[in-house]
Amino acid sequence: MEAVCGSVWVTSSLPRSPKSTLSLFRSTHQHLTAFPSQSHLFLYHPPPYANAKTLRARTSSKPAIFLPHLIASLEQVDQTYIMVKPDGVQRGLVGEIISRFEKKGFKLTGLKLFQCSKELAEEHYKDLKQKSFFPKLIDYITSGPVVCMAWEGVGVVASARKLIGATDPLQAEPGTIRGDLAVQTGRNVVHGSDSPENGKREIALWFKEGEVCEWTPVQAPWLRE
Fold first, then answer.
1. Binding residue per annotation — 85?
2. What architecture is the 71-207 domain classified under in CATH?
3. Is 191 part of the annotated catalytic residue set?
4. What is the pairing mode between strands 190-192 and 77-84?
5. Which cofactor does it need (predicted)?
6. Residues 203, 204, 210, CA angle at the centre, nearest 5°?
7. How far apart are CA 19 and CA 24, in angstroms?
8. Is 188 annotated in some ligand binding site?
9. Is 136 annotated as a binding residue?
């Protein structure tokens, strides 16, 4: 029997018994795999001719997993809250900002134009309540309508922060939203959640029940394996 691994050809005689076939499969399987895993998704399934003693020996050892499967299993779908601030709405930048997230491949699950109340703004920015600029920040967010968005995807929180750019637009890289579209921290166009936990909290704060949609884009198979 001939087998190829990379550019190396291996030639061996065909095993004469089920037991020797199983032994050959084990040695080849262990050689090709990279990392052990406890996940039931990648457990070894023995052939029907394996006896009880063989099954016990196999299940007592750690099963193996191929590297691509390991990487896929680590992917986490997160949610983030993105808000086009009043200056972004007034300047007609809503479509431009939405387009950047769509082109990246993230899924839009919630969208609305909304006039923020003072109470909601204070709850949203409660971690900044002790800052000297807090009153001015609340006045800014409530000065006009904002566009509230919920986005979903693998690594969406971290990726969205990169798309948005640094808080100070003068420090933001060209190609980011703030680097391209804003010039001052006090008018930096857009807000994005800073962690997956805050993403869920902020979506729940700004969207009512039923306003966030669950759906599957037709392009999904072309974005993820």
1. yes
2. 2-Layer Sandwich (3.30)
3. yes
4. antiparallel
5. Mg(2+)
6. 95
7. 9
8. yes
9. no
The backbone torsions φ and ψ at residue 4, rounded to the nearest 5 degrees and listed phi first, read: -120, 135
Name the active-site residue from 29, 45, 124, 191. Answer: 191
Is 133 labeled as ligand-binding? yes
134-180 pLDDT, tens digit per residue, is: 999 999 999 999 999 999 999 999 999 999 999 999 999 999 999 99
Q: What is the pLDDT of residues 109-139, one digit of tens each?
A: 999 999 999 999 999 999 999 999 999 999 9
Answering whether pTM is above 0.70, one says no
* Whole-angstrom distance, CA of residue 220 vs CA of residue 107: 9
Please state the length of the chain.
225
Residues 6+ apart with CB under 8 A from 112: 147, 148, 207, 211
CA angle 104, 87, 124 (to 5 degrees): 80
210 Ramachandran zone, left/alpha/beta (phi>0; psi -120 to 50): left
191, 88 Cβ separation under 8 angstroms: no
**146 beta partners:** 114
Query: What percentage of the chain reaches a pLDDT higher than 70?
Result: 67
Distance of alpha carbon 151 from the chain centroid: 10
